[in-house]
Amino acid sequence: MKKSKIEIKWALISAAMYLLWMLLEKLTGLHDKYLEQQQYITALILFPSFIIYVLALSDKKRTTYSGSITYKQSFLSGCLLSVYIVVLSPVNQLITHYLISPDYFENITSYTVQKGILTKVQAIQQFNIGNYIITGLVAGLITGVIFSAIISFFIKSKNINHEQEK
C-alpha cells in the first residue's frame, strides 16, 4: 500500500475532478437544456485527465525514484493509477446519477427518442447506470493505459542505467 501511495492520491484527485466536471455540466445545463452539446463537451474531460496522469507520473518520478525513472517504472505506475481510477469509477457514476444529475438518464432517453436517434427500448437499454458503469470501467482502463504509454515515453529519464528496470 505504501508503494502505491502516490497512485492512490492521484486516483482520488482524478475522482474529485470527474465529480466537479459532472457538477459543472449539470449546472451549465448540459444534462438537460443543452443536452445536444453534452457529448462534445464531455469529451473535453480527456484534457484534465491527461494532465492528472502527467502530474501523477512526474510526482512518482520525483518522489519515489529521486528524479530518475525508466519507461517501465513509469508505465507500470500509470497502469496502477488506471486501476485505482477504474475502481473508483462506479462510485463516481453512482454519485453522479443519484446526487448530481438524477434526471440525466430520463433526459437523454427522451432526447434521443424525440430526435429519432434511438427507439425508446434502445435508449432505455443504452442509457442506464449499469451501462455507464461498465463503459466507465472499460474506457477508463483503455484510456489510462494509452495515457500511461504516451506520457511514460516523455517522463522517462534519459541515459538511465538499465539495471533500475529490474
Tell me what you see in this structure.
The chain has 166 residues and is mainly α. It has one domain (2-161). The chain is built from seven helices and no strands. Mean pLDDT is 94; it is low at 162-166.
Q: What is the helix/strand order?
A: HHHHHHH
Number of helices: 7
Global geometry: elongated
Strand content: under 5%
How many distinct beta strands? Answer: 0
Secondary structure class reads: mainly alpha
Radius of gyration: 19 Å
- Secondary structure: helix percent: over 70%
Instruction: Give a short account of the largest sheet.
Output: none
Average pLDDT works out at: 94
- The rounded distance between the terminal residues' Cα atoms is 20 Å
Low-confidence stretches: 162-166
Total individual domains: 1
Write the topology of this structure:
Layout: H1 5-27, H2 35-43, H3 46-63, H4 71-100, H5 104-114, H6 120-126, H7 129-155
Summarize the structure.
It contains seven helices and no strands.
What tags apply to this protein structure?
166 residues; mainly alpha; elongated; disordered C terminus
